[in-house]
Each structure stands twice: as structure tokens, then as C-alpha cells.
Amino acid sequence: MQTELALFDSPQRREPQWVGQQTVLLPGFALERVEQLLPALRRVVHAAPFRNMTTPGGRTIAVRVTNCGELGWVSDLRGYRYSPLDPLSGQPWPPLPPVFLELAREAASQAGFADFTADACLVNSYLPGNRLTLHQDRNERDFSQPIVSVSLGLPATFLFGGHARADRTQKIGLQHGDVMVWGGEDRLRFHGILPLKDGVHPLLGARRINFTLRKAG
Ligand code: MD6
Ligand code: FE
Predict the structure, then answer these.
(1) What is the pLDDT of residue 12?
(2) Ligand 2: distance of its center to the CA of 173 in Å?
């Protein structure tokens, strides 16, 4: 009985799935740390609240974002870039929680990227209906460094394209606790998120949180 309950309660990591030459989905990889990740996330969001940013073209980005770490990704009429200061407060971004750094390093090493040390973490908050259009992540200095992406809350469909915007995309389901690591030859592939479906997650409610750990500087 006890074992059954323990089995039922215990977070399940599943087999890694290679979705690109240097891109791996680690299903459930973050589950065993969720109890540390959520309070750490709450502290970050308390210091640097989620906000809507503006594209250089003047559109509002529906997905709300914040950052932690030495550098944070920002977008406004002047462009996309990394900044050491939160433009809302004029203060440095809150520090990267050690549990984020450890998770990123372990996940990256599973994908063959040894000694990954993130200095930036972009946190995205999606409500039902929010999507992220196809884009490349190219504001970081060193494209030899991978990106580690952690999904929490409602499930989402990730679109994974090629090196040109018009290339066909594959759909990858991302669930609460999944971690994706990508780098190398896949580092500049176009990608996005389909509109989030309605739902309520037992821990996070009606939203999805994604955070991506990067070496930006
Ligand atoms: C998201 N992720 O999962 C959006 N970018 O909500 C990204 O845009 C992303 O997951 C670079 C690397 C991994 C990612
Ligand atoms: Fe991205």
C-alpha cells in the first residue's frame, strides 16, 4: 500500500527524447525540484513583477515576462537586448536562484553540454489564448552555449522549425515539469508556442510558466 502511494505521488521522469541533432526533451526532469522552484520563482516575481513589453515595432507582447540573473532580456521601441537593470525599477534583476542554476547545469550535461553556467533567466507567463510567434533567440553573445527551457503549469504545444522562418515545423507537447535543452546546430532554429488552451493546473492555476536559462553575456 505504502509503495503504491509513494509511486503514485512520486514525480516521474521519463526517457529523454531527441527532437533535433542537439535538442533534447527531458520529460519530467524538473518535477523532483518543483517544491524548490515554485517558492524561488515567487521571490523573483515579487522583486521583479511580470509585465507586458513592447516590440521594437510598437506592438504589445501578450506573454508577460520578467527576468532574474545578472542580465535580463528586454524589448522596447529601441529593440531587443539584454540589460543588467530592470527598466521598471531601475534596479538589478533579482539574483538567479541556486536551484535554477543547478537544474540548468544538470539538464545541459544530459544533453552533452558540460559546465553550463547561466547568467540570465527569462521567465514567461502565459494565460489561455496567449501564443508566442515564431522567432529565433539571437540576442545572446555566444551561440555555442545552449538554452535550457523549463515548463510549469498548463501544457503547451511548442513549434520547432528550421533555420528559415518558412521551414516546416514539428509540434512538441510540453507538460508541467518538462525541460528542453537545445544548442549547437539547432541553436538558431525558429520556434514558437501555439495559443495556450484553457485549463486549470493543480499547482499553478490557469496559466503556464516557462523559464529559459541562458548564457547571455
Ligand atoms: C516557451 N520558449 O516555451 C518559449 N526559446 O514558452 C522559447 O522561446 C525558447 O523554450 C529558446 C529556447 C528554448 C525555449
Ligand atoms: Fe525562444
Answers:
(1) 84
(2) 16
- Residue 6's pLDDT is 53
Which ligand approaches the C-alpha of residue 180 most closely? 1
The pLDDT, as a whole number, for residue 33 is: 97
Read off the pLDDT of residues 175-216 as tens digits, 9 standing for 90 and up.
999 999 999 999 999 999 999 999 999 999 999 999 999 999
Catalogue the E-assigned strands of 154-199: 156-160, 170-174, 179-182, 191-193
Atom of ligand 1 nearest to the CA of 124: 6
For residue 47, which of 96, 100, 93 has the smallest C-alpha distance?
A: 93
Q: Ligand 1: which residue has its CA nearest to atom 1? A: 210
- Domains, the chain, ranges and CATH? 16-214 (2.60.120.590)
The 10s digit of each residue's pLDDT in 64-91 is: 999 999 999 999 999 999 999 999 999 9
With the most atoms of ligand 1 within 8 angstroms of its CB, the residue from 82, 149, 181 to mutate is 149
Whether residue 10 is predicted with pLDDT greater than 60 in this model: the reply is: no
3-state secondary structure 15-26: CCEEEECCEEEE
